[in-house]
Each structure stands twice: as structure tokens, then as C-alpha cells.
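## Example record

The block below lists the input lines for one assembly entry, exactly as stored, with component labels intact.
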Amino acid sequence: MNIVELIKEKKLLEAKQELMKHNAIDIAQLFEELEMEDVVKVFRLLPKDMASDVFTELDRDQRAHIVQSITDVEISNILDDLYMDETVDVLEELPANVVKKILKNTSQDRRNLINQFLNYPDSSGGSIMTIEYADLKKEMTVKDALAHIKKTGIDKATINTCYVMDDNRKLEGIVSIRKLILSDFDVLIKDIMTTEIIYVNTLDDQEYIAEQFKKYDLTTIPVTDNEKRLVGIITIDDIIDIIDQEATEDFQRMAAMEPNEEEYLKTNVWTLAKHRIIWLLVLMISATFTGNIIQKYEEVLQSVVILAAFIPMLMDTGGNAGSQSSTLVIRGMALGEIQLKDTFKVIGKELGVSVIAGLVLSVVNFLRIYFLQKVDFFVALTVCISLFFTVVLAKIIGGILPLAAKKLKLDPAIMASPLITTIVDSIALILYFSIAVWLLGI
Amino acid sequence: MNIVELIKEKKLLEAKQELMKHNAIDIAQLFEELEMEDVVKVFRLLPKDMASDVFTELDRDQRAHIVQSITDVEISNILDDLYMDETVDVLEELPANVVKKILKNTSQDRRNLINQFLNYPDSSGGSIMTIEYADLKKEMTVKDALAHIKKTGIDKATINTCYVMDDNRKLEGIVSIRKLILSDFDVLIKDIMTTEIIYVNTLDDQEYIAEQFKKYDLTTIPVTDNEKRLVGIITIDDIIDIIDQEATEDFQRMAAMEPNEEEYLKTNVWTLAKHRIIWLLVLMISATFTGNIIQKYEEVLQSVVILAAFIPMLMDTGGNAGSQSSTLVIRGMALGEIQLKDTFKVIGKELGVSVIAGLVLSVVNFLRIYFLQKVDFFVALTVCISLFFTVVLAKIIGGILPLAAKKLKLDPAIMASPLITTIVDSIALILYFSIAVWLLGI
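Predicted C-alpha cells for the full assembly:
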């Protein structure tokens, strides 16, 4: 019988035994299947140290529910067991009155620290770091250092990298636990520490910090204040979340939405709608320019009605061709592979690709509509010449616009499919009708 | 004067001194600015251990160039210094004749190992693991273990997690270096090791492995064969590359391209074109169905030509509305937040969101075209009713198709903007003309 069933049948003792066979993450996952009323009941079955491990893995609603249902002492017990970054994460998600209640039960020192953390800007180094790092002094021997770690290491987020500071907490060097273990006991820390340190500032943006991790294959990074005093460290598990989050933001922006950090299934309909409507409106209104172009060429359409039949194909192909280019450039920029200085290289590549793609598409299309659909030769020619130039222009515009956005300090990701499509639509139509007027002599 | 300038002026000694102030990754970055003819010259300035570190960070072309320009002994020296996964990565990128030349200089044992690695399927656990892990026995004391690590640790990819195996190399437990350091010297490994191990198989897909890292906040994972014998480990720095790579693949598929692992700027125009043309062709041909619909309603268009002016707006808005939904669902599925069993939840959410978005867009559009553009009341009504239903259908289709793709064992990412746009276009037009016929009595 599985745990959820045991709980439903109120066999709590058996449920507890079953629970203890699992790790905190799997238990947290199991909580997702529980009814809200059972959440607190099951949570209280967990031994103290397991309780806080499970707590950090629960989702926002369940955390809030638990905090509001348990005693102040129980809350303090959980929060005391959490690392500083987790504590702050939890507090940020809770309603203000609950936070007040919790802070009341916290020591003055820790309260000050928490308030300092809550004041770091969103997505800054300060807001994602934790303060539980292993600290050493450069005069220590390896033996001293290992003894110091043994004494204090239990509370640290990681001891895989240790940080060497002077008396003013200024960061002087780092030394890996591996180096400590591989070195002889009487060697001094200052002789084995690395002084060439990759570090970030409390105010650096998380995207920049993630780049440092990737570039230097780090698993932790020290965070310093403006005086280069060590104030915390960031560990790689948080960076993985940030990498996913930044990619998700790009996906959302590229599909013309305001980014939303919450999981889709956990976001309510109003919030989902709010994040989507503004861009839909903007793009809808922009698309009316395209309509105006068609209106302007009403006479052309009326004399050769068949021309209307190729409008969707032209518009869609132009949009797709442009989106391909903009997607590659936006992603390349996000990964740091394409920079502003590469603008001419991008134009060169897109010109080459678009000429090839444009030729292939035009020829295939010509064969199809002239021989299969038996369309008039000059109409077919009009369609295919327009198609060729649409693809070329779409790809060059798609390649340039993300770089232009960057130049203007905008997010390149907004220059994606929907916006490119709207822009390319107008160009495709003007080209199409102009070529029609010229070739068909309307 | 910077290093590149020093090299250009052939001040190699000074260049070497300057180089030694930097770490391997920064030196590798500097290589990107060098002319190909200087690459080998500068590479030979590096001391032996630094040379292999820099080598793994260089790009494919430069690696191949170096390997083909240096002596066999130099190649062996570099490869001997690399971890197995790096060696295999390097070999996979080199031309076959160069690989042959290298393998000739390798011991039989290592050659067998390399061949085994080269045989693991692409993107499998076996192909990304490395074999340099710290191994312990459960009968060791902590003191023995630390001594063993001290003796062998220098060659290991990481010692932060150590692996306990029986005599048949069967994985029995893991113990972190932290636990070793925090434990007393005479404690037995078997008493502190964790036996509840998260591990993967050599044949597991890298996407699944990355999910395990995220789910359990791991920094390494053991890789076993079908008999649960330990054959290697995967470290988190490789996982970060995989997470980026998987997201990039999704970006590319969602913009209707065949995924391409190479960096944009390093891919030639033909390859770029090849990855884009097939989908452009497929979508172009699909878009002709939309053209056929317009042709079918030629008479309607001829009697109320103004209707043509709203076609781009309807098509674009439908496409955008659908892409928003499909993007959220595709990304949610990639992150494991949305599963097949959530299909009805997704439909419910999209129905709600689309009714809100559809209403807002229709009302705004009605006000604009009726009052500002002075379009006939019934035409305005036709446009807005079509718009509403297009948005609703687009969002529901956008939400369902990625899930349907998964059900059919296809990649959900192909059900993105371009394909959704093509499908929604047809629906939007049929709706539009049907409502026009009905409301305007054509």
C-alpha cells in the first residue's frame, strides 16, 4: 500500500515508517498528491531535521499553509535549520503578517541579516547567495584548516571550496578541499591557496553570474561587497535554476509574452491572460498596417483576384524565414556566442543563407503553381520573385533586429517571431503588389 | 602592450611571461584572436600541464590544426593529461586519419577504453561520463580512505563524492568528502556511506540525466552498467552544457529548424541553409491550403473587397495567440512541469485565458475599426466575432498539440509557432468567410 493511501486510511504510524524510507526530495514530491488538509498532518510525522529538508522542497502554497498551521516554535525550528538563502526565499513568498510573526521569534542578529538579504535587488548576487561558507586564515596549516572545518563544517552549505580572508573579511584566496586533502599537514594555507579568484559583487545580475560559472566551470563563486569583503557564496545548484529560468524568460519573450516566473499549471487564468494580452494588442494594431497596404492595392486585387490566394503563403514564409534567423541570433547572444561586433558577420551569413533558401523556395513554388495549379505565367513569376526577395529581406531583418535591440539596450528576445512576422508581412505585401503592378502592367 | 601584439611583434619571451599571468580559460579565449599561423607557435610557449588545460578549451578548428602541426609525442603528452571524457570529445572531432595516428601512440589498455567510449550512443550517459572517480571500499576506516584519496586523488575528476564498490566493482554506497572530513578517523566507511544512491545507466539519455541532477541537486552522478557495476561518473559542469544544448535545440525546433549543435558563427552558410530549408518548404506548401481557402471564397472577396484588408490582422493575431500557448506548454513539458496527465488542466486554462484575451482584443478592435476607420457595422462585427473565435481556437490548439505530439512520441517542440500559425491560418479564414457569408448575406 502506498503512503498516500496509508494516510487516507489514517494509518499514520505505518505511513511514517514508509516515509522514512525515502529522501527529502521524493517525500516533497509525494506531498503534491496530498489534499491540503493532510499536508500538515503528514508534515508533523517527519523528524525535525527531515522536516526542514522537505520544507524547502515544497511549493509556495503548501509552505504558506504549513507556516500558518504550525506553532511559532515549530516555525523557528525549521528556519533555524535552513541556509540563509533558503530562509529568505521562504520569507519572500509568505504573506507579510506571517513574516512578521516569524521575525518576532528570531534573534536580533539574524533578523538584521534577514532584512539585509530582503533588501538586495531581485536577481542580484546578494539575493541568491548564502552566508554559510567555510572560512580559513592564510596563517593556518593544512592540519589547522582541516580541524577548523571539522569543527564548523556541519553548518556550511558546502566545504568543497574554502575561502581565505584577512581580519577585515577581505577575500585573499581560495583553496579547494581537494587541495587540502592532497597536501601535507604542515603546509601553510597561504602557500597552497589560489589568489587569482573569480568573484562577483552582491549587485551583479544573476545572468552575468551564471555566465561566470559556465565560462570557468565553477561549482561555487564568492560574492563580495564593494570593498572586496566576502559576504557570501553562490552554489551551482542555484545557478542551474537560474539558467533554466533565463531560458524560460527568453522562450516567453520570444513568443510575445511578459515573462512569468511561476509554473504554468500553478498560475491562475487572470495572471496568464495579463501576461499575454498586451503584446497581442500591440501586434494586432501593428498588423493593421498590413491591412492598410492591402486596402491601398484594392484595385490591383480586384483586377487579378488570384493574387489574394498567394498572400498567406508569402506572409507565412516570410515570417518563418525571419524567425529562423532571429531565433538563432537571439539564442547565440544569450549564450555569449554572438556579440555586437559580429553584426557584419551575421549579415553576411544571413545574406548567403537567404539567397540559397530563397532560390530553392521560389523554384519549387514556381514549378508547383505554374505546372500543377496552371496559374498564368506572369502571375507565377510575380509570386516567385516576391517570394525570393521576401525571404532575403526577412532573413537579414531577422538577423539584424536582435543586435539592434541590444545596441538600444533592449532585450534581444523581443525581436522574435511575432514582431518579425508583423514587420516582414508589410514588406512582403509592398514587394508583392509593386512587382505585380510592374510585371502584370495593372 | 597586450599578448596578441607581443606575438605579432615576435616578442615571444615577453608573450610567455604575460601568458603565465592568466588562467587556462582566459588563455584559450585569447587564442580566438590569433591568426591560425600563430596558434601553434603560442601553444608551444605553454608549459606542459597548462598546454592540456588550454587545449580542451580551444575550439574544434584550432584543436585540429594543433594536432596536425605538433609531434606525436606532444600529442600523447596532451592526451595523457586529459580526463577520459575530454579525450573522447577531442578524438570525436578530429579527422579519422589523425585519430588513427593518435591511437597508435596509446597503450593497448587505454586504446580499448577509448574504443569502448567511442561506441556509446551519442547523448548517452556513457558518452558524457568520465572514468576518473575516487573509489573506496566499505571496510576502510575514514583514515584509510583519506590516505587512499591522498595517494590517488590527484588524477581524479573530482573527489567531492567518493564511490564505495565491492570486489566486482558493484556500487554499494557513496560518501561525500565532507562526511569523511567531519567524521572521526576510526569510523568505518560502511557506517557513514549512503546506500540510497541516485545513479544512471550508460545508455540513459543525457536529458534524463540532467533531470536527475536538477531534481536531486546533485553535483556528480555515478554511471553503472546493466549489472550495476560502476563504470564512470558525470560531473555537473557537463550537465550545464547539456541543459544549454537541450534548450538551444528546443529554440531551433520551435523556429522550424533542424537542430544544429555547432555555434552559429562557426557554421558555414550551406549547413545553415540545409537546416532551415526543409521546414520552410513544408510550411510553404501547407500555407497553400490557406490560399485555396481564399480562392474558394473569391466571390465573397470580390463583393466586399474591404474584407481582404483584415486578413493579415486575423491571421497574425491567431498565430500569435496560438504560439503563446504552445510555447508555454512546450517549455513546461521540457522542464517536467507539465505531463500528459495534465491535458485537461491545460485545456481548462487555455479556454479561460483565450476567452479573456479574445474578448479584450475583439472589443478593442471593434472600437477601432467601427469608430475610427468608419467600417460598416456588420463588417466590423464579422471581423470581431471571427477574431474572438480565432483566438479561442488558436489557444486551445496551441495548448493541445504539444501534448498530442508527446503522446505520438514526437518532439513537442515541433508544435510551435510556425506550424501552429499555418494551422490556425486556415481555421481563421474559414471562420471569417463563413461568418461573413452569414452576417453580410453575400
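Strands of chain B lie at 133-136, 158-165, 171-176, 200-201, 220-224, 230-235. The first helix of chain B runs from residue 3 to 8.
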